[in-house]
Design brief:
It is found in: Cell junction. By secondary structure, the protein is mainly α. It has helices spanning about 10-15, 20-35, 40-50, 55-60, 60-70, 90-95, 115-130, 135-145, 150-165, 170-175, 180-195, 200-215, 225-240, 245-250, 255-265, 270-285, 290-295. The chain is about 60% helix and about 0% strand.
């Protein structure tokens, strides 16, 4: 667990170690099957997998990445060849949002397991069943890592979490835990998921009222609570930017007074939270059909 947080070279060596990832997954599967989700070794295994999933898109070799994501579209020679990982033009990124992953291997090995639906479901199961804060946070964090990029893998993982594995109820429950780091990571995961336009209506229906309910009445004092508030505002921004319906949902959940109060925080007008709330307000005002409702 300590070695897995030793930086890019350490992660690379551990991902390449034959049988290591498979063994970690095997152990966690056994713990869940035996109804032992609070086992300390399970916590260690999940924390290792969380660390090994960090910056996975950027750190996989390009040749390996290309073999995983064979583009199934004819792209003219004038376009940049879309890489599977790493930064590319906005146009290519938009195309890749809807590019499906190739059919999953029924028996993934090694690094392939890190984004496989089997492990995604294991994380969601641990989020729902474990009462260990570190296990919950590491499971949420691994999903946050896997959904952080802009290539096809993050969007495929997001679709699996939201639509195939029905993970939103488990994530929503983590919004209401007392442990601030677990709550922060859950919100950060939702922020990543909400970037996927095809999932926004599902996410808004399932968790938007909960996000509004945990939004503070003003900018909070602690750094971790402030970061959580920033992520909530940007998640709400993603969900409402192109949807008048979702903006109305925020309004009916009594979110507007909270957002205004955060944006007008007198103690530090330039705080990240105040800025994020202001960006959200500006976006909400773009829905002209709601102006009269806002004024009321």
């Amino acid at each position: 667990r300590n070695m897995s947080s030793a930086g890019p070279e350490g992660r690379k060596k551990m991902r390449e170690c034959e049988g290591l990832i498979d063994s970690l997954v095997y152990y966690i599967q056994g713990a869940i099957a035996d109804h032992e989700p609070n086992d300390k070794a399970t916590e260690n295994c999940v924390c290792i997998l969380h660390n090994l999933s960090y910056q996975l898109e950027l750190e996989l070799p390009e040749s390996y990445a290309q073999s995983i994501y064979m583009q199934r579209r004819n792209i003219s020679s004038n376009d940049k060849t879309p890489g599977c990982f790493g930064t590319r033009s906005r146009k290519v990124k938009e195309k890749q949002q809807d590019t499906p992953l190739p059919e999953e291997k029924s028996n993934p090995k090694g690094v392939e397991s890190l984004w496989h639906s089997t492990l995604i479901r294991i994380y969601l199961s641990l989020i729902a069943k474990s009462t260990r804060n570190y296990t919950q946070e590491a499971s949420l964090g691994a999903l946050q890592n896997l959904t952080a990029g802009t290539g096809p893998m993050p969007f495929a993982v997001a679709r699996t979490v939201v639509q195939k594995a029905n993970g939103l109820p488990s994530i929503r429950a983590m919004l209401h835990v007392s442990h601030p780091a677990v709550k922060k990571t859950a919100v950060s995961l939702l922020r990543n998921l909400s970037r996927n336009t095809s999932l926004q209506s599902d996410i808004a229906r399932e968790v938007l009222p909960d996000l509004v309910s945990i939004l503070p009445e003003c900018v909070p004092g602690s750094d971790i609570a402030c970061e959580t508030t920033v992520s909530i505002c940007y998640t709400l921004f993603n969900l409402t930017q192109s949807s008048s319906h979702n903006a109305r949902l925020l309004l009916s959940a009594h979110g507007l007074p909270k957002v205004i109060a955060i944006s007008m925080n007198d103690s530090n007008m330039f705080s990240k939270a105040s800025r994020a709330a202001s960006v959200l307000l500006y976006s909400l005002w773009s829905h002209t059909d709601l102006h009269s409702a806002y004024k009321k």
